């Protein structure tokens, strides 16, 4: 069974949705493939970014099939919400869900327009790019004033999920990978600093980020630098613990499908 919703502004894409699962395997250029796969597909003279979410593992199979919105649906709905708030993200085109004969979700897709960009934020933090310190300063201000003060919390806020473009001498930032987000009235300082912990860079770059974030929010820069360091250490410890305890078990069951 096929379930989908398409943005009326991009109804021309509907022509390949009915057979998207097959089409995705046959055309396009893969730009990312680990747990999920992301391809750039050209259709009707436009470039689309199509993210394929693999089959849910045994933990999520019933939830995504009967109780929770799929990752593809959440990505689409969050992108529409960001657009309404005036927050940059590649234009949402559609989400597509496939279910088997018993009603279990087999896989799903999120489609957006492909956005040409100068950098991803992880490239800025890991490479010697022109204007690096200025990008970090403007990024910190963007996170503070555009996201957190408007109550927007990206729960997978790594550098690979932020695209960067230079426009008229200033930098614009675009959020991607939107299936895990929260929208609140406002993000407090402690929660805001904690939200930066997945960003990876040298101690100097992380200190610059925390410093400029604190200045944007009129808080003590030294306190913020120390707090970010502590949050990053704790985050890594939790990740290492989860991998050691749950990793082997998860690998055994993640590919299981219902009979």
Could you explain how this protein is built, in words?
The protein is of the alpha+beta class. It folds into 2 domains: 2-113, Phosphorylase Kinase, domain 1 (2-Layer Sandwich); 119-238, Transferase(Phosphotransferase), domain 1, CATH 1.10.510. The protein has 8 helices and 11 strands. Strand 3 (37-43) and strand 4 form a beta hairpin. The longest helix is centred in the C-terminal third of the chain and has 33 residues, at 221-253.
User: What is the spatial order of strands in the main beta sheet?
Assistant: 1-5-6-4-3-2
The tally of beta strands, per DSSP, is 11
Order of helices and strands: EHEEEHHEEEHHEEEEHHH
Oligomeric assembly: single chain
Beta-strand portion reads: 15-25%
Biggest sheet features: 6 strands, antiparallel
The name of the CATH architecture of the largest domain is Orthogonal Bundle
Number of domains: 2
Instruction: Please state the CA-atom Rg, rounded to the nearest Å.
Output: 20 Å
Uncertain runs:
none
Structural class: alpha+beta
Helical percentage? 25-40%
Shape: globular
Q: What's the level 1 CATH class of the largest domain?
A: Mainly Alpha
Work out the helix count.
Answer: 8
Distance between the termini: 17 Å
Output the CATH topology of the largest domain. Answer: Transferase(Phosphotransferase), domain 1
Average pLDDT works out at 90
